[in-house]
Structures are given as structure tokens and as C-alpha cells.
């Protein structure tokens, strides 16, 4: 493995009382640097490159050698400058990442590189032409990272994408820890790259101040209660802009560029043209499946889950059923990461302490903030639909949907994203059946309105589930929801 890759793989960097690693801190710094009296002559994106963002061979080939590292600009307090320096340092852990208000984690390197391409295009384009030609916006954000990751994996070593991670404290994020073995494209890098493409593309057509752009896209603070910030649509918007064909084309072009660059030439020596094309195809397909066609699922550590009590019982996959619920209490849909995480903690507390179950009952919970929250997840038997907990996933919408419906986007999140993703990834049978909780027990759940809605979904069956005994174990029965 080569040194600049190793650098990208190291894990957490200890915090030391610096400003929180939150997008708000970044936006404040960008704002200060963009103010007329900041005393900086380079753009924020160029400054980021000077500090080590865009340190990879392909990115340098596209955007040029980094400017000289400047001294601390007077516009930034020493602790902010130190944070920025750490976030962009070439040896920064995956990291170089910050927590966004929507609860996602975003690597700054690809984000700011995409923004620099956008700014240059808006200013008349000083982006060098490479041979073969690459789309600079994709090259500096996602194409090189993907190409390199799948090229290295060809030798059989390591993961190609992911994993996600968690922050030590979502109110004062300092340490970010990955949830599994690292790849060159952890979720934070994928998010930063998608955002870099989306925002670079926006800037190219409408060169507004970067601070304003970031504030509008990510929202501020802990997220607004009234509406989802645009960042929560990143997967959908990136998919619409890029499409798998474009991604494959750009990864292939980037591999050809890397073949000609001294630091990466040897990586491609033994790779023929056909294999190169296969690597690009696989990279684009896997990325699209994971980050565009499947929804983001907020892991337990991000919403502050307590541990499972006892020993979880594994599901035998693929499952054949899905049961739709509403939570009823909380009765209001949650529209921000902070509110949805709070709802998750409240339900888990209630299920464990009042009901005496091992954990929050649902397999997955659906916020109206654009995210699915992990309850028991894909692999463990839940306590959502008494008698049927080991046969199907229990998916609960946060809110009371007796008289109103979830937003159209929130309906689509399960119907068009989560369930098709579960089928494609082998968790759910292609011929699964879908029912409302009320068909399986004495309850109004999931509410009249939501029930009428799911009657139109793929897999819905009007008749109740098979009666009589079920295949749940005694333990799962004891946990079963009534
Ligand atoms: C971050 O993690 C490191 C190592 O795990 C630890 O030493 C340090 O105290 C942590 N910092 C904070 C602010 O939690
Ligand atoms: C987020 O909310 C917490 C309280 O829930 C608060 O302490 C913190 O300052 C807020 N963060 C931001 C960036 O507004
Ligand atoms: C669903 O398909 C599987 C094979 O993939 C089959 O064994 C099963 O019987 C089918 N179930 C229903 C309800 O048709």
C-alpha cells in the first residue's frame, strides 16, 4: 500500500477542546474568511488545498500543486485555525470529517475540492485538460477515490466502500470512530463527494458566497424542526445528476489518468484495458447500489441507543414479510435529526423499562427528516408484531397517522427505497408480503390514513396473516407487541 492511502485510513484524532467538529463550525470559519476584511487572498477552497485537502495524485493533477501553506489569517481565532488545519491535514483521520445538522458525516476534502471546481468554472474555467479528458468535478470528488478503492481491492485486500461511523457526542462532536474495517471510501467520504459534486455544480451556474451556499444546503444548528435541509436529499439529487453511466465513464477516465501519473503508474501496470473497464463498472455499480439506491440508515450509536438487554436472536434471512406501524406516541412526525434521535431514545426507554422488552421493538423507524433509523436492524428478531417477529421486519413511522399521512418523500423512503433495497441486498424475498400491524393483532396501528396508503404498495395482501401458531420462540413471544 502507498503512503498517501495509508494516511487516509488511520482512525480517530483525539480532540482537545477545539470548536466542535460540526458543519456549523466550518460555516462560521468560511464566513469569516470570506468577509471583506479577512486578509486572505485565496478562496476558501484554495486555502483548503494549501492545508492538505486534495492531496491525492489525481486531484493534484486536476487542480494543480497546492498553494504554499499560509500563516494563520487574522480572521480566524487560533483555535479555529487549528481546527481547520487539523481537518484538512493530509494525515487527518477519515475524518477530516464533520457532523452536519442532518446527522450525516461529511468529509471536507472532496466537498471543498468540488466547490473549487465550481468556483473556477463560474470564473471562466482554469481547470487543466487532462489526457484522457475527465470531468474535473467528478475527478476531484469521487472518481479517483472510487477507482483507487476498487483497484486496490482487485488484489483481494480489504473493503471497497464504507463503513459509517459515530461521534463521541453529537452536541460537541470531537472524535469520530468507524463502525468497522476502513475502506478508502468510508461513508463520510461518499457523502462529502456527493455534496462536492452537487454544490460544485450549483456554484458553476450561480457563484454565490460559499458560506451562504453551505448554510442553505446543510441548514444550521441541530436542524430545523419545520423542514428538511437539502443535504437530506443528497442521495436522490446525486443520483439524478450523475446516473450510473456517468459515474462509470468518469471512474474509467480517471483510471487512465492514474495510469499515466508517476505515483500511481505501478498500481495499474498489471491491469489490462478489459480489467480496467470491469473495475470502473463494478465501482460505479456498487457505489450506486449502496449510496444512491439504498437509503441512509442512521446507526444506533448516532441516535444514542442504550445497549440491547440480553442476547439478540438472529433472523433467518431472507424474510418473507414486512409489517408497517406508526409509533402513535410520539404523535408528531420528527423533522430533524435531533428530534428523531430524541424520539428513538424515548421509544427505546419505554420499550425496555415499561414494556420490559430487550430493546426498541421495531426493526427500523422512519423519520420525516429523510432518514431511516436503525432499531433492531436487518439481522435481529424484533418485538413489533406479536407472533410474527421472526417472519418479517417491523417498520414504524414516527407519528400518529390516523387522520394524516406522512409527507410524500417519507412515504417514498420506505416504499421506493428501503424495501427495494432490502430485496436487492438479499434481506427480503422478492415476493414478500406487506401488511399493516392491524391485520396481525388487535390494534388500529398504523392508523387509518397510513393503512389506506399502504394498501396501494407492492406486496400488500388484504387478508390477515396465517392464523394460529407462529414460528416465534417463546422469548420472542414474550417480547411481542400487542
Ligand atoms: C478522543 O479519543 C481519544 C482516543 O480514543 C481519547 O484519548 C480522547 O480523550 C478523546 N477525546 C474526546 C474529546 O473525547
Ligand atoms: C444542539 O442542541 C443541544 C441541546 O440539545 C445544544 O446544547 C447545542 O448547543 C445545540 N447545537 C447547536 C449547534 O445549536
Ligand atoms: C416466494 O419465493 C420463494 C422462492 O424464491 C418460494 O419458496 C416461496 O414459496 C414464495 N412465496 C410465496 C408466498 O409465493
How would you describe the overall organization of this protein?
The structure is a single chain. This protein is an alpha/beta fold and 482 residues long. The chain has two domains: 3-293, no CATH class; 301-472, Peptidoglycan recognition protein-like (Lysozyme-like), CATH 3.40.80. It has 17 helices and ten strands. α7 packs antiparallel against α8. The protein is globular and about 70 Å long. It starts with a helix and ends with a helix. Mean pLDDT is 89; it is low at 1-15 and 467-477. Bound molecules: 2-acetamido-2-deoxy-beta-D-glucopyranose (3 copies).
Can you give me a brief rundown of this structure?
This protein has 482 residues and is α/β, with parallel strands linked by helices.
Features:
single chain; 482 residues; alpha/beta; Lysozyme-like; 2 domains; six-stranded mixed sheet; two-stranded antiparallel sheet; 17 helices; 43% helix; 9% strand; globular; binds 2-acetamido-2-deoxy-beta-D-glucopyranose
Q: What's the SSE pattern?
A: HHHHHEEHHEEHHHHHEHEHEEEHEHH
Major sheet summary line: 6 strands, mixed
**List of distinct ligands in this structure:** 2-acetamido-2-deoxy-beta-D-glucopyranose
**What is the average of the pLDDT values?**
89
Give the percentage of residues in beta strands. Answer: 5-15%
If helices are DSSP runs of H or I spanning 4 or more residues, what is the number of helices? 17
Helicity, as a percent range: 40-55%
Distance between the termini: 55 Å
Shape assignment:
globular
Please count the beta strands (DSSP E, at least 2 residues each): 10
Overall domain count: 2
Strand order in the largest sheet:
5-8-7-9-6-10
